Amino acid sequence: MTRRLTVAAAQLGPIQKAEGRDVVVARLVRLMETAHKRGAEVVVFPELALTTFFPRWYEEDINNADHWYESAMPSNETAPLFEAARKYNIGFHLGYGEIAYEADETGVVRKRHFNTAIYVHPSGEVVLKYRKVHLPGHKEFDPARKVQHLEKRYFEVGNLGFPVVRAPIGQAGPVNIGMMICNDRRWPESWRVMGLQQVELVMLGYNTPSINQDAKGFEAHHLRVAHSHLSIQAGCYQNATFGVAVAKAGVEDGCELFGNSIIVNPQGQIMAEATSWDDELIVADCDLDMCNLGRTTIFNFAAHRRVEAYGRILEQTGSVAPAEWAPAAKAAE
Ligand code: ING
Fold it and tell me: Domains, the chain, ranges and CATH?
């Protein structure tokens, strides 16, 4: 029996700084209703889907920024989304800023902030949680930048790794699902750690500026989308998995984010792409058995990977200069 799954990417248009969660959640519910009409069994929403991309705004004391985060999930504001999921029997992925009171690696329980994503079963139960590992940008206010990107100020590095879990989704039965968030997609390690857990569906949201904000070199504008798609298509192909990558897009308080959400199959093909930079649903029918070809042939990890050659990947964080070559001493004349 083929394992077919109808997935939806629910791209969001801009969320302005002043926009209330109630308005945003109503947009999410409307997208979920559309997904239901289109026969989707799982809906993927973007990174930080409940608020504007607030790491662009500097706040001296992070304790004055609690309003950007969720301390409970669901909460009164997000409950309508969980109710819609139950009503339509749809699982969903949601990205949001998380405040959690929990022990850190020293055992001290404290208030912690993460860039988080969850996968929620139609029953409302959280099946899987992920916290963003690769935090781009900077921690302190950077006067040289036109727009700040303060993820290292607002979030701690995710402490949950890249988990994959086998969970029932729609008619397909159990599916190996995993998540990553935005910048994670640019790092092949994110994909491979999940590929080593036989992931079949990677759900990821992103908020990506449409032009390079690091004035440290030329990058043609069209390459912003190209680099995003390159990263996702390569990750799916090299780990024999489907990927659903969903943007928050459009102009948020003058700052433009690109859309171009895509659904990608295990051969790296784009199955569907959003063409607006606003609220837009794209849907694809995924034959999950398509993962088997890559996993049992070209990317049969057990047969072909050579971990003894990969030491640098775990031993080194930064790169180091290579050894210098010099021509052999001239043979004696
Ligand atoms: N945004 C961007 C992303 O990785 C970025 C930041 C853009 C980094 C382009 C490097 C190049 O898509 C988030 N939120 O990670």
Answer: 4-332 (3.60.110.10)
